[in-house]
């Protein structure tokens, strides 16, 4: 491990996203696609890097050209890929999306027989780096199969309730036999996390509660109690963040803080990367010590900006773009398809 800890380590899903260059039609009628780096934890790392944070990803790819492409993209986006290893037995996953804006973006996952990002083993983790990171970001997808489940729980336990130990609920029905099978694993992971993030459906899977206030309170009950102080910083205060789509976002903290903010209006192109942009900006706000409401406003603005663009990773906004969106009251900004 290098002497300087990472500000953010994310862990889990990584693959190639193929988005059609034509909206409003099914995949059976699309003949042109554009390739992007994909996978929620990878996109969150990119989003935080775009905001100036030192980030790294723990994941796996196949030993194939798509894996080479993804490692190259991570490097160009400023994400350390030292822990993105190859798994020769499984191909790098590909995900196709159909675009039916403003709110329908069905995904078709090609992750069989098994995605390499589910082949992260506990003994392969650099737990010193995981402990030292100012934020660890894990996902529910990482709990869906072994050995990734054991690795995710090992990483969470290594943090011992330290501040900013995040579980993004990231519920993907295609990766689980049924919601009932998922809930015990979510409960175990939340016992070691200090921040939970999810939408209404994800909260219902994890807690049985769908209404935002009830879901947030249920998450707070499941999260780790106040943990030890971080190096040079305060102890963890559990935080539950519930994304409500067009109604905005709600957050409750165990110390009584509450914030609810509406989304910025945007002409939606592709809503899939919005949550990842939100996550990267949420991490930035937590690290910067911003007030909770300001953190949510900036994270919500970041999500709106990306929803107005085709790609996810290359669309992640920098701080100036977030400022501009908040000042103008709209997430519809010029396209941003280049690398930083």
UniProtKB/TrEMBL annotation:
Pfam families: PfkB
Domain Carbohydrate kinase PfkB: 12-318
Domain of life assignment: Bacteria
Keywords attached to this entry: ATP-binding, Kinase, Nucleotide-binding, Transferase
SUPFAM superfamilies reported for this sequence: Ribokinase-like
MF terms (GO), sorted A to Z: ATP binding; kinase activity
Record-stated family: Belongs to the carbohydrate kinase PfkB family.
Name of the protein this chain belongs to: 5-dehydro-2-deoxygluconokinase
Organism: Streptomyces filamentosus
